[in-house]
Structure formats: structure tokens, C-alpha cells
Amino acid sequence: MQKRFVTIWFRYLKTDWFCHRHPELLHLPFVLTDMDHGRMIITAVNPVAYQQGIVAGMVLADARAIVPSLIYLDDIPGLPQKLLRSIAKWCIRFSPIVSIDLPDGIIIEATGCTNLWNGEISYLGSIFNRLKQIGYNVNAAIGDTPGKAWGLAHFSDQQPIIRCEDELNAFLFLPVAALRLEVDTVKRLDKLGLRQIRSILSMPRSVLRRRFGNHLLMRLDQALGRQEEIIQPVQPVEPYSERLPCLEPIVTATGIELALKKLLELLCKRLQQEGKGIRKLIFRGYRIDGNIQAIDIGTNRASSNVNHLFKLFEIKISSIEPALGIELFTLESSKVEDIHSTQEKFWDKACGLENPGLIQLLDRVSNKIGNGHIHRFLPAEHHWPDRSVRIAASLDEKTTIQWRTDRQRPIHLLQNPEPIWATAPIPDYPPMLFRYQNKLHKVKKADGPERIEKEWWIEEGQHRDYYAVEDEEGKRYWIFRSGHYSDSYQWFIHGFFA
Amino acid sequence: MFFQDLFQFSIGSHDLKNTNLINRAQAGQKLLLVTKIFSKIANYLCNGSFGLVMLSQKADIILQLQKEILQLQGFRYKASDDFIRPVLGPIDSSFPNGVFPLACIHEFITQSAEDIAATSGFISCLLSSLMNKGGVSVWIGASQRIFPAALKVFNVEPDKIIFINTKKPKELLWLFEETLKCEGLAAVVGEVSEISFTASRRLQLAVEQSRVTGFLIRNNSRNINVNACTARWKISSNPSIIAGDIPGIGFPSWNIELLKIRNGRPGAWQMQWAYNKLLSILKPTMVSSTEQRKTG
Fold this sequence. Notes:
A: alpha+beta; Alpha-Beta Plaits; six-stranded antiparallel β-barrel; four-stranded antiparallel β-sheet; about 30% strand; B: nine-stranded mixed β-sheet; 7 helices; about 35% helix
């Protein structure tokens, strides 16, 4: 079967993308620039700027002399590659074999695909129109070799050309640059008066090889189909998902569990081979009546352990309503991370925060009662009691700050200090007695005051004078007076000592 | 006298049947072992005509048998636990085998916020030895009551404790049980006020499997019922003792009451946390007469 290739040339790839992002640029002359030896060099132009005589490779200052209203933006390095890759992935809808042709093209092997679009004209038209809708200026051509298609896309005026015999004729009348030659070779051919492909086609090969090297012959052979050109197709990343259709609709919890286990085993097998683990997972059941039942889980650390993941789901299985039955199950992972495998120490079970059992437990807990209920605390460099501890972001987080023990701190700290009524003999003395929750406490022993300023760079407010006091029963409290004696002050209780 | 001891054994085995039995399969197994013990006792009786048995020998036999029964009741003595086992001085003699029982549930009864603070302090003392080999503990409660910075005073690494808070009582119990099942944790502290007999048995089952020590703080519980916990404590604050007229509030000191202990002897002690260990207050020194003074 004769092979067919489509070549798409994105004449203004980068600027088209910028216009797509910023539609206001569409009708204005604008260029992308990059610094090169202290000069701003234009790397890409848009059609409006091109019509006014600006081309890539110009110095920006020169271009602005020609078009004073020229808009210029910074070029993004590596952008064409990224764009072409995503366009190539998108083009897989037209053919399974799509490859990138840097810097500005895509080659699609369309062998056997065109008849799905009722012929090559509508196939090519479809590609052309869809890309145009997105906002890309494209030239596309179809040919029996990638080389021929490339030449036609770049240099032919009458596009698209379909019939094979026309194709060859048209190709022969193209300029030699259509053979994808180096600039030097093209210049030398031009000097010798060899301006069209047909003029070099009739020359003996040995002469061409001697004068222009092997590259010209190779390109010629590739274009004419004498030598096969290998193209490297884009491989799309397969999503981490599995599906399980059922012969009979599933209505029981046991059935759902079986399906879930089967899917998990399939998915985890693949993940283990790739050394990856799951952070987020969604299990969906498609009901006969069109409803979709879904449960999802998340893990604190990437995991590919079937039993652990199953346990996380197990709590939520009861929330699935099978109604008349579920006919299709899917398992999809929306977040996958690399697993850093650690050596398991089976002789040392109390292995601290890295204990896999603990991590699995915390996963189960956060899936059952929700996030934001599990905390680990680290010291923070603040004097204000509420700010002197902070919640650790992760289980492994470490800090260089040490826990302080030089100041007395209560083991129970009230979330909000509660106002109390207290009597002190003279200012700055600890109180003699205080009333808290309708009970009078006589202070027998006391420590303090410890003055703590409200850190003004965070929050404005009165300072606190803290006292640790013990009443006649030996109960210990952390109480403070807010503010100076001279102005309005209030006594509060803030915690209980052990 | 020997018959009296024997009688105690038989009571012990009854006790075992009533409180410690978790499921029927286990019950059957344990009954089998109890009959084994009885046959051993019978052996002793037959071999030595017991009139001739020396008093010391008799004591040895009883000790031996007591140990075997303890083992059947789930008090497995592991030498490796000694590295993390809290040493409580005079209290230790009340425990079975004379050591603080690990891998079981200790219940603490509290009535007020001050009690909880005292209890938390005492538990922190226990945690300090349980966690001294780099272990991690989990503290479960309805709200974040503990101020982590204060734990360092009791020689506990605050960042090695994971706090889990949830308001729903049912979730609290589920959490406590799940956490107790997790092997490799040093200890689990749970602030759960109401717990049924069945729930407590479930907890006991969990710790027997995982060998994690559980501390259950029951604040203002409506009914202090019979449950499967190994020990029941009550910790209350005690006026601290300061020698001479040094200002300040002194070391934390507590009245420690061991209300119930399976296979042990309940009792009450006064102890204080000083110099990074629990010390018993033997002879109270004079409390200073001038109670208030400016300190700052």
C-alpha cells in the first residue's frame, strides 16, 4: 500500500500562540525578542508585522525604526517544542503516528486514515480548518513521502494537491530549498543556476555527490521515495486508569469489593513496574440508569499497596448506591508520584515517624474524618504563647529551632483566655485570690510576672503579665493581667499546669 | 494456709473467665490451660505430702504458679520492653510481676480541667520513658487541649506526638481502636469520656495484638462502669513542697491513686516530677510560712 504523509507547517507558531493567549494582539504588529550579545534580536514575528517588512533575525531597534508602533514581548525558550508536542498529541485524532518536525512543523502518517474522512481533500481540509479555528496559520500538504509533503507545504502555491501524478509534477517545479537542504548548499545551487528540483534530478548522482556531498542525495532520495525516512512518533502518556465492564449488573457490596480489588491489582501492578505510587484515586461505578457513583481517596504518601488502598476505599464502599446495578467500574488516578522505596527493617518495629503502619493509619483517618484533624507541632520563634508552636506541614518536616524549657508553660492551654476576677495586694504582685467558674481560689504559691509583649509587627495590643499560681489544693493555673495597672486592665486564665 | 492460696487461685481463674475472655475460641483455649494449671497444682499436692513442704518452697511454688497464670491472662513479660518500661518506684510493687504493665489499657478518671492537666502531666511522665527509643505516640481528643511546648518539661519530644482531634464521640472510639491496632507506636492517649464494656474489650483485643500501650482519659464520665481496662488511676494535684522559703511554685506533684489493677494491689502514693524523673515524696518538709512574695 502506498504510504501517505501530511506535513503541517506552522508559519507563525509562536506568535499565533501569543495571539491566542492575548487576543488584543491579533491585529497589531508584534514580535518576540531575545537577548543576544547585548542586542534584542527578533525571534518570531506575527503576520501583521511580517507584512510591514519585519522578519525574524532582525535587531529590534531596526524593526522599531521601520514600525514605531511595534509591540515586542520576551520569547519563551523551549516554547516551540512544548507547543508542537501538545499539538502532536492533539493530532493523534487524525492518525496514530504523528511526529514533531522541529522547529515549526508536524508530520502525520496518514496511510489508511484518509478514507475515514471520505478522502484526502476533506481529511486535509479538516486538519486545516480545526487548526485555523484554534488560531494557527498553517500550510498543510499531503504527499507520498514526508520530504515531498514538506516541500509542497512550504513552497507550493496551489494547495492541497492530491493526485499522485500532479504531486510529482508540482514537486519538480519547486525551488531546491524544498528539499530541506542546508542554507549553504541552497546558495551554491542557486549560484550555479540550479533553482528548481527538476534541474538537479537529471544530473548524474556521482557529480552531485562530488559537488554537494551525500546530504543532497539523501534528501533527494527521501523526497522521491527511493530511501525510506524514519519518523519518530509522539508517544502519549497513558493515563493511570483501569476499567472493568461487568456482564451482569452488580448490586451487592461484595461484588463492588471484588471489582475494586481487581482494578486495584491491575493498576498497582503497573505502578509498581514504573516505580510510582498513588496520591489520589477515584473509583467510579456507572449505573444502568445512567447515574455515576464515585468515591475517592487520598494518601499522605505515594502508595502502590493494594491492601492499603483497598482499606481506604473500604470505609466508603457503603456510600455507593448500586440501585438497579452497576455495569461498569473505572478506577482513575488523578495524582501519581514516584515512590522512594526504603529498606524495610523487620527487626525494628518502632521506627518513628517513617513507620509505614503509621502512615497507613493516618491515611485511613484522614479519609474517614477528613483533612485538617491531624496535627504535629513544631516550635516557632515567637514569645506569644499561641504563636510559639506551629503546625508542621508534613510528617518529615524538621526544624532547627529547639523547644524551650526555660519558661514555665502550662500543659493545657485554653484556646481563648477566659476572664477571671482577681485581687492583687499591690501592683505587679501575684493575686491573693481569684474567682474562676464561680469557685474562689486562694493563691498559696506564685511565680512571676513574666511579661510577654504582643508582637507589634504582627498584631497591636496590650502586653500580658503572666503568673503561675498554685491554690490551696495544689491546683496550678497560668493567669495573666492584660495591660498596665494604670489603664483598664483585666485578669484572664490561660491554662492549667500539670 | 495453703488451701487459702489455692482458693485464691480458683477465684483468679473465675475472674479470668469473667473479665478477660474476649471470644469463645479464646475462652476455650484459656479454660484448657486453666485445667492444665489445676492438674499441676494437683501434681504438687500429690508429690510432696504438703505437711512436709518447707515454707520457702511453698512460696516458690506459688510464685511460679502465679507467673504462669499471669502469662495466660495476657501479661506477657518481654525483656526487650524493659528499655522503655516506666519505672515508678514504690508503685511498681503493686503491679503484677512487679513491673509497669505494657501492652494494655490504663484508664484515668478525671473530674475537672485541673484533674485533666494533672493526669496529662502524669501520662507525659510515662510517655517520656515509653518514647525514649524514638517512638511515636498519638494523642486523640475532642479538641487540642495539650500545649505541645509544655511536654518538653516532662522529657517528651513534642514533635514526636501526633494529635488527632475530632468532635464526634463515635469517631473518637473508632480512632482510638484503629490507632491501638497500629504496630510500632509507643503509646496512644485517648480522651474518651464514655466507653461501654464491649468497646473496652475491643480495645483490649487490639492492644493484645499490637502490643501498644493505651491511656484512656475519662473526664466527667456519667457512669464509671466495669470494663476490660487493666488499671484504673486517679491523679489529682497535690500542693508542691518547697524546702525553706524559696519563692516559686515548685515541682509538679500529684496524688496518684491506683483504684483498680488486675492481678495487683491497688494503692495510693504521692509523687512529684523532679529532675526528669518521678520521685516519691517521702517526708514532707516544712511548707514555708510566708506564702506570698514578690518573685519577679
